[in-house]
Design goal:
The chain has nine helices and no strands. The protein is mainly alpha-helical. Helix 3 packs across helix 5 and helix 4 runs parallel beside helix 7. The protein is elongated.
C-alpha cells in the first residue's frame, strides 16, 4: 500500500499502524459491498483496534472512507507507474494503463472492487491514476501525438471508459480480458487522433507482468 516517510519513534509507528489498520478495514468493506453504513464499532473490530482509537485518527466515518479510497487510488496509480516507467510514448502509456487495469481485476481484486464501487467520484482526483493520466494526455497534446483537445475533457472520457471496462470485467468474467481491453484502448487512441493502424499496433503491444 502507499507509504510516506517512516515514523521516527515507537509511538508514531504504532499510531501509523493503527491508522493503516482502520484504512485497510474500510477498504475491505468498500471492496465487499461499497456500503459505508457499517458502524464505527464494526470497523474498529475488523481493524482489531479499540473503539476509542478511531477518533484519534478520523473525525467521522466519511473521513475514513475517503482516506480508504485515496489509499486505494494511490496504490493503483503506483502499480501502473512502476510497470510503465520505461515507456515514453504518451499513446502507449494511455493504452497500457487501460489494459493493465483490466488485468488488475484478477491480480488485485480488492483494489479494483474499491475502484468499481467508488471510482466515479474520483475521475478528476489529485491522487491515483487520474493525475498520471492527465500528465500523459497533456504531453500527448503538446507533442502533437494527440489532437488538440482539452486534456481535462479527454480525462473524463478516459476515466469513464476505464470504469466501464472494470465493471465489464466483473460483470462478464468469461470475456477475453486482454482482447476486450485492447479493443477499448484502440478506440480511445483513435478518438485522441492516433492513426488507425498505429492505434491497433500500440493497443496490442506486450505488457509488463503484474506479478
Amino acid at each position: 500500500m502507499p507509504t510516506s516517510a517512516p515514523p521516527s519513534n515507537r509511538f508514531e509507528r504504532r499510531r501509523a499502524e493503527t491508522r493503516q489498520s482502520l484504512v485497510r478495514a474500510a477498504r475491505q468493506i468498500l471492496a465487499e459491498t461499497g456500503d459505508t453504513s457499517a458502524s464505527i464499532q464494526a470497523i474498529a473490530e475488523r481493524a482489531d483496534v479499540g473503539f476509542g482509537s478511531f477518533y484519534n485518527h478520523f473525525a467521522s466515518k466519511a473521513e475514513l472512507f475517503d482516506a480508504a479510497v485515496v489509499d486505494a487510488l494511490e496504490e493503483f496509480g503506483q502499480a501502473v507507474d512502476e510497470r510503465l516507467r520505461e515507456a515514453e510514448d504518451p499513446a502507449e502509456l494511455v493504452a497500457a494503463g487501460l489494459r493493465l487495469s483490466a488485468r488488475m481485476v484478477d491480480s488485485h481484486p480488492e483494489l479494483m472492487r474499491v475502484l468499481r464501487h467508488r471510482g466515479l467520484g474520483h475521475i478528476h482526483s489529485d491522487r491515483g491514476l487520474a493525475p498520471r493520466a492527465l500528465r500523459d494526455l497533456e504531453r500527448g497534446v503538446t507533442e502533437g501525438r494527440f489532437v488538440a483537445v482539452d486534456p481535462t475533457v479527454a480525462l473524463s472520457a478516459l476515466g469513464g471508459s476505464l470504469l466501464s471496462l472494470v465493471e465489464l470485467r466483473f460483470a462478464r468474467p468469461e470475456l477475453d480480458a486482454d482482447e476486450t481491453a485492447a479493443g477499448l484502448a484502440e478506440m480511445i487512441l483513435r478518438m485522441l487522433g492516433v492513426p488507425p493502424d498505429d492505434a491497433r499496433d500500440i493497443a496490442r503491444r506486450p505488457l509488463p507482468d503484474l506479478a
